[in-house]
């Protein structure tokens, strides 16, 4: 039996009957619904809901999008992503689309589904994510190929990326990958995983700040030692510079331990600059303490040699301060299209 949360008529943003594409709240809501559409596409597949029984189409058709292509995992054949095309009424010309900032295409990725038909593969991807090896998976290879093909076909200004949880990590990795080649895609990343101890949960601000400073000093020291040991790496090299012009929108909830560390990650960087320790933090912010430690003791593997997926130089960080009943609600995709959500936005630019 279908869950109420899968039915657009029961849980979708029906109040958005007319979309103002210049409104950031409308853009966020539509992006979140397109991600939800991928979740329901996979549920339709699992439950063999076809044609009139399918619940997924309203999640994109309500906003005048058309499902162009499904992205399927080559291991379990589950649907993990979708490419949508905006198909407005004939009254909209192509010049209207570019002028209003309307996306012509959106590539969306779902997160982990705790259902038997896809859970084992999703869990395997979650482990790869934790071990910083998502870039080595076949699912990501399918995703990045779809992104590159779409950008080559229609241009970067016509493509959005969107994702939730594991799918957010997929979208972030794809965005970072193409950003290194000078292609900067508009991205809506909901509850992106930040692989770290949940320091943000500590209530005492002095203790929390002290832990972060100590972590930064240790991380910067290990990073500097690693650079010295690798004679082919210049000490002045800053890999974040190539990515700094890419500014994805990160949507996080402070009650969600999976993504809440992004709040402290960016706030701490700002505080370190204010106390004159910006140089230390500039080095620390590009590295994962866990990965550096494993490499230092000779336990690193191929995955560890890649830069940490969750670390990015710039972002528009949007925090949902609306009280959540539990972790499930704090990490859920539904919160991002609610009309009464309490949001605070802060732009962080890497210099």
What does this protein look like?
About 3% of the residues have low confidence. α6 packs across α7 and α8 crosses α10. The protein is of the alpha/beta class and 351 residues long.
Mind sketching the topology for me?
Layout lengths: L7 H4 L12 H23 L11 H4 L3 E8 L6 E8 L7 H7 L4 E5 L6 H15 L7 H17 L4 E6 L1 H14 L6 E5 L14 H25 L19 E4 L8 H14 L3 H7 L4 H8 L18 E6 L6 H5 L11 E6 L3
Helix pairs in contact: 6-7, 8-10, 8-11, 9-10
Shape: globular
Uncertain runs = 296-305
Largest sheet: 8 strands, mixed
Q: Which oligomeric form is depicted?
A: single chain
Computed Rg: 20 Å
Number of strands: 8
Q: Helicity range of the residues?
A: 40-55%
Q: Give the termini distance in whole angstroms.
A: 52 Å
- What's the average pLDDT? 85
Q: Beta fraction of the residues?
A: 5-15%
**Which strand order spans the largest sheet, edge to edge or round the barrel?**
1-2-3-4-5-6-7-8
Q: Which secondary-structure class do the elements indicate?
A: alpha/beta
Treating each run of at least 4 consecutive H or I residues as one helix, how many helices? 12
Q: What sequence of helices (H) and strands (E) makes up the elements?
A: HHHEEHEHHEHEHEHHHEHE
């Amino acid at each position: 039996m279908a869950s109420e949360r899968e039915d657009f008529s029961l849980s979708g943003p029906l109040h958005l009957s007319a979309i103002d594409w210049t409104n950031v709240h409308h853009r966020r809501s539509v992006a979140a619904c397109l991600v939800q559409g991928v979740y329901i596409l996979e549920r339709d597949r699992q439950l063999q809901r076809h044609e009139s029984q399918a619940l997924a189409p309203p999640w994109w058709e309500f906003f005048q999008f058309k499902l162009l292509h499904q992205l399927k995992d080559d291991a379990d054949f589950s649907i993990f992503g979708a490419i949508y095309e905006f198909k407005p009424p004939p009254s909209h010309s192509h010049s209207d689309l570019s002028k209003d900032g309307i996306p012509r295409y959106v590539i969306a990725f779902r997160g982990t589904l705790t259902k038997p038909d896809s859970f084992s593969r999703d869990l395997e991807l979650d482990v790869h994510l934790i071990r910083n090896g998502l870039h080595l998976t076949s699912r990501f290879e399918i995703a990045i190929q779809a992104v590159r093909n779409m950008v080559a076909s229609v241009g970067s200004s016509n493509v959005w990326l969107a994702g939730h949880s594991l799918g957010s990590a997929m979208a972030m990795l794809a965005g970072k990958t193409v950003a290194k080649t000078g292609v900067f895609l508009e991205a809506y990343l909901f509850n992106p995983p930040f692989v770290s101890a949940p320091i943000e949960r500590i209530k005492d601000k002095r203790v929390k700040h002290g832990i972060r400073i100590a972590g930064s000093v240790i991380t910067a020291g290990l990073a500097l030692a690693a650079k010295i040991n690798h004679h082919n790496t210049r000490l002045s090299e800053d890999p974040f510079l190539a990515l700094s012009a890419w500014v994805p929108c990160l949507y996080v909830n402070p009650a969600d331990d999976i993504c809440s560390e992004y709040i402290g990650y960016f706030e701490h960087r700002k505080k370190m600059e204010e106390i004159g320790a910006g140089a230390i933090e500039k080095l620390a912010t590009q590295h994962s303490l866990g990965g550096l430690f494993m490499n230092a003791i000779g336990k690193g593997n191929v995955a560890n040699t890649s830069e940490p997926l969750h670390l990015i130089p710039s972002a528009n960080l949007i925090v949902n301060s609306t009280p959540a009943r539990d972790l499930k609600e704090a990490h859920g995709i539904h919160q991002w299209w609610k009309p009464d959500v309490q949001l605070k936005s802060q732009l962080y630019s890497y210099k």
